[in-house]
Structures are given as C-alpha cells and as structure tokens.
Amino acid sequence: MAEISSDIVVVGGGTSGMAAAVAAAEKGTSVTVVEKAATTGGTGNMGIGLFAVESKMQKERNINLTRGEAFRILMTYNHWKADARLAKKYIDKSASTIDWLQGMGVKFANVISTDPGAYMTDHEISSPEGYVGPQSSANMIKCLTVKARDLGVKMFLRTTVKSILKSQNQVIGVLAYNNNTEEELRVNSKALIISTGGFGDNPEWIKKYTGFNWGRDMLSFRIPGCTGDGIRLAWEAGAGASEMIMHMIYVCTEGLGETTQEVDLTIASRQPNLVVNLLGERFFNEEMMDNNTFTGNAIAVQKDRTVFNIIDKATKDHYEQEGLDLVYGVMPKTKIESLEAIMKKMINQGKDIVYIADSLEQLAEQTDIDYEGLVNTVEEYNKACETGCDEIFEKSPKYLCRPVIQPPFYAFKLRPGAYGTLGGIKVNHKLEVLTKNYEVIPGLYATGTDANNLYGDSYCFILPGHTMGFAVNSGRMAGENASEFVNRF
Questions:
Q1: Which residue from 142, 240, 419, 479 could staple onto 24, CB 3.0 to 4.6 Å apart?
Q2: Measured distance CA(309)–CA(471) in Å, rounded
Q3: Is 318 exposed, middle or buried, given 0-12, 13-18 or 19+ CB atoms closer than 10 A?
Q4: Strands 432-434 and 409-422, how do they pair?
Q5: Mean predicted lDDT score pLDDT of the chain
Q6: For residue 170, how many C-alpha atoms fall within 13 Å in the half-sphere facing its CB?
C-alpha cells in the first residue's frame, strides 16, 4: 500500500472539488485531489455559466439586482426551507468569485437570463476561441486545474476512494484504490472535502430517494461516475442526510438535445401552446412553459408523468416561416425552418416522442390521450383563443393566439427531466458536515451538488446559474474553511 500525507484531501475533481483545491492551496495548505475519472471537471466540463450578483460585468451592463434582493428572492422561493446563513454567504461571495476566476484566466462573454422572466445572473463562460454554449465551461475547469498544479496540488486520477478514515470522531484521511498502479493508496490528512457530483448516474438511488423511475418517467442526464459515492462515504462516516431532489427540467426527447434536431424539437415543444395530460385536460397555465422547474413539477404530478404539447398546421407554418413565440437564452433560436421534416424523421426512426395526425381522433389513438377529453379541451381552448379570455387558468391574451383548428395536428411528448441531483449530505453554513443530530464532524466538509440543499423542493430557475455557481462558491468556501481548520493544529 502506498501512503502519503496532505493537510487536506479533496474527494472528487469536478467543479467544486477543483475550486476547493485551489482555494485551500492559496491559503498555504497542502492539498491532494482524488478523482476516479481520467480527467478533472466532471459535469463542469459540460456547462455554460455560473450565478453571481453585483459582479463588475453586471454593473457595466446596468444590471442592478443587489445581493440583498437576490437573497430575499431565493429564500422566498424556497419558503425559507434552506440554511439562510449559507445562502447569504454564497450570494455575498459570488461576485468576488467571478474576479477570482478571471484572475486565473477564465473569460466570460456575457451575463444573461436563461429563461424569459428570470433575472440576469448567469455569467457565460467563453472558450479561448470565443465559443459560448454547452461545454464552454470546460475552459474554467482547465484554468482551475492549471492553477491547482501551479500551487502544488497533488492529483490522483483514476483513483477511487473506498472509505473515510477516522480516529475517535476526527477525520484522518481516506483509503483509495489507484487504478493506474493497481494498488491501494492511503492519504493521511487533517481535513477532507467531499465533492463527488451527486447521484444522477444511479437509477436505484433516484428511485429510492426521489421516487422517479429513470428512463420511464424521468429522462435526466446521467453523467458517468456520479453514482453518489461521496454521499455514501459521508453517511458511512456518520453524516446526516439532507433532502435529495432532482434538478428539474422538462424535455420531449430521449437525448435531452444531444443532436441539433433534438434541440430544435425541444425548443418547439416548449412554446406556450395547448398542453394536455393523458386525460385530455389542461392542467396548468401554459405561460409557465418559460420556467423549466414549474413546468417539470406540473408534469410530474400528472397521470404516468406524461403530457403533450399540441399545435396545428397554422402554428407549425408560423414557427417555420415567421418565428417562435418564446426564445430561450440557452437555446436562442428564433425559428425552426424544417420542423415538420424533423418530426417525420424522428417518427421514421421509431422514436415515440412526436406525432403527426390528420384528425384529433387519430392523434388520440397515437398518443393514448382520452379522445372525448381531448375534443372537449380543444373546443374550450379554441374558444379562449377566439375571445382572448382563458377562464380556466387566466392565460394572458398574448399567448392565446395559437388555436388548434387546421389539420394536420402535431404533438410533442413531454416528460420530467433533470440535469442531475441536488442534496444528500447535511452541512452547516461553513460547509462542515453534520450528523443527523446537527453535530459537526471535525475536519469533514461537503460541497457542490452533494451538499446543495438551497431550494426546498424545486430548483430556483429565476436566478439562473445556481448549480455551477454554488459548486464553485461552495468549493471555494470549503477550501478556505478547511484551511482555517487545519491551521489550528
């Protein structure tokens, strides 16, 4: 067995883990990162931007949201079902974290609102070539990794932590298996930071702790390796469990937008048109289509967690020729020029996600929507579009402009989806891990999605960038706090 010593060991070299490693090393403590994948970054290599308030970029753009306002918005949104001191510290630190990252060479392109009605808090990361979009955040991971190495951080990749070592109640290191050398590794340490990215790649845990059946009524991203390792290790070491939820979005395609055509379908399916459940009934105000979390929650309580967004030929032609009703910041397309062709291609491939029918009866047969309920709802909805008055859900007249009249009819299947998971390890406002009785486990910290319990039961989409924002900021805070703890010895 190989054996080394380090002031701090970080379990997981993703977004929060690398931020923790750099922050701790900047304080003069020795740091070792143990990562089971072959590269650093994890989910952080796939993102776009992160949350911040009162950053220099926002001030330059006259974005006047204050830290206090953001704190009140977040805590009102989660009904104060979160650690308010942790939330405030995170928000207060967020602007300086943008400066911190820029000091390492991270470039930011813009500050955006990812969804209509949300605040402009998402700081988009740019690649060195100027690309902004999915995976541009990999440049941030690269900068953090380079900085960590410059600061002397030791990194063991393809190395899996098997257990946390404790003496009495004190963390004293980890036992790991190095897949490169095929030998066990013991890392002695005075503090330990868990940053392993949640359990989004663990269908058994998703079912057990959130109630969703992955692949059936939950179409979430499965980032390889995010199986809840850090959460399990923390629990085995005496940690209490925090609330565990899916980071909710909603989708119509199995691949969550892996191809350009799937992205086009996703955008088309998220327009604020007639949406019905399997009973053929409307169940929410379709204006909420611009809020992924609210829509995902509404879908999740319908029969079979399955609903359909329905349009007719006139609406389809409008989206192809004139433009969409809603344009999203992350997917800023204004029109889908070949929507019908894409749908037919998906149907020919046997994908049970879109439908084209010459009548409502045929559409009901294809989708298993109750025909009588569908006919009644379409008649009711078309009347609302004609009068500009939605007596059921008070939908704005602005969005009552797409009746379902002219065949063929088109339907998009919508089911709950998620970027991953949130929560699992109980922490305090210092990111110290707590037992179920709220006692601190000395020297043990948790960050990122393993500890992210800021939202009650729903992710706060109205302040975009929170997942990556909390990952970087919680990692930075935990690294600093763990260094302070180590320096007491």
A1: 479
A2: 34
A3: middle
A4: unpaired
A5: 94
A6: 10
How far is the C-alpha of 59 from the C-alpha of 357, rounded, in Å?
A: 51
Residue type, 148: A
Percent of the chain, pLDDT > 70? 98
Q: What's the gap between Cα 254 and its chain centre?
A: 17
**390, 296 contact by CB (below 8 A):** no
Whose tokens are 């390889």? That residue is: 224
Read off the amino acid at residue 106. Answer: V
| CA atoms of 209 and 88, how far apart (whole Å) | 28
Q: What is the pLDDT of residue 256?
A: 47
The answer on pLDDT for 254 being more than 70 is no
SS3 assignment, position 299 = helix
Give the CA distances from residue 67 to residues 55, 91, 268, 417, 480, in Å, rounded to whole numbers and listed in that order: 10, 6, 35, 30, 21
Cβ atoms of 5 and 187 within 8 Å: the answer is yes
DSSP letter at 397 equals: G
Longest dimension (CA), the chain: 77
CA distance between the termini of the chain: 27
Cis peptide bond upstream of 128, omega within 30: no
Structural domains in the chain plus CATH codes: 2-244+423-486 (3.50.50.60), 249-417 (3.90.700.10)
Helix (H, G, I), strand (E, B) or coil at 209: helix
Position of tokens 């009819």? 409
Q: Are strands 432-434 and 354-357 parallel, antiparallel or unpaired?
A: unpaired
φ and ψ at residue 364, rounded to 5 degrees: -65, -40
Residue 257 pLDDT > 60, yes or no? no
What is the number of other CB atoms lying within 10 angstroms of the CB of residue 448? 35
Report the range of poorest mean pLDDT among 174-183, 290-299, 365-374, 380-389.
Answer: 290-299
Amino acid identity, residue 245?
I
The residue whose two tokens read 């006259």 is: 62
Per-residue pLDDT at 255 exceeds 60: no
Q: Is the dihedral of CA 79, 81, 85, 91 positive or negative?
A: negative
Residues in CB range of 178: below 8 A, 6 or more apart: 2, 156, 158, 159, 184, 185
> Is the model's pLDDT at 190 over the cut of 50?
yes
Q: What is the number of other CB atoms lying within 10 angstroms of the CB of residue 71?
A: 17
Q: What is the mean pLDDT of residues 12-21?
A: 98
Helices (H), strands (E): how many in the chain?
A: 15, 18
From the list 55, 38, 30, the residue with the least C-alpha distance to 472 is 55
Q: Do 136 and 124 contact (CB within 8 A), yes or no? A: yes
Query: Which residues lie across from 193 on neighbouring strands?
Result: 10, 445
Contact by Cβ (8 Å): 194, 419? no
From start to end of 191-302, where are the E strands? 191-194, 245-251, 274-277
Take residue 438 and report the two structure tokens written for it: 């709220």
CA distance 173 to 190: 7
